[in-house]
Design brief:
This protein is α/β, with parallel strands linked by helices. The chain has 11 helices and 7 strands. It has a 5-stranded mixed beta sheet. The chain is elongated and about 75 Å long.
Amino acid sequence: MSEGADDAGWDVEPGDVIEPLVQAVGRLLKVCREAADIPTAEFANIMGYGENMIRKMERGTRIPRPEFLDKADHVLKAQGHLRAFMEDMRKARYPKKVPELTQMEERAVEMLLYSSHNIHGLLQTPEYSRTLFEMRQPAHPEQVVKRETAARMARQAVFKRDPAPTISFVQEQVTLERPYGGKMVLRRQLEHLLEVTKLRSVTLQVMPTDLEEHAGTAGRIQVLKFADGTAIGRSAGAFNGRPVSSPRDLRILELRYGMIRAQALTPRESQAFIEQALGRL
């Protein structure tokens, strides 16, 4: 198989916190391969990847996919030693900040989310998400764009939880009208929003542009509440953008979010707005 067809995992960024773990898994992979007395070229052929890709994983400069480790464990008769790292490598594929955010979203029983510049990450289609990462400056390498997009899509597993968390979204009107990536990308994004609004655990409201008063001028807001009664919140324009968890600070964010939600269109009006926006494309 040609090197360009290889898709066994992601490159490790030098200095990344997960680098030592990936290197340890790489050494284990090499030990298992050598114990099975299978040359690198033969192993690469069996696995369906380029020889150079196998060498990268064994050096710890490439994060192997969980399914790769699953198959390698069987091929090398590793008795579960490689499979034991499948979940670690799944998490290692995400950017540094994503695992912590994903874990918090997985624990949340309620989310309050206000977005002002683009569609919230939990609502994005792959095309829309990729477009946002491609537009960043300085430009991201293709590998980083793919990795960031995949990580963002993985977070959307939160909708499939049982029981599902209660999630309230408020989106600025402009985020539903700006054609990032072109009109077809926007059309698919709006269609996706309408599908998400069918979920009983989700409410989506649109904040009109023509309001004379707006409680969200300080920027986006995120509040996650957990089953034990604790919560964590963050706003771009409050507390220097740092996460907060004290009851006093959370009350401020919840007050702002409550006012934003009250000023926005109702969920039914918002659904009609999205349908009208689709009709104009």
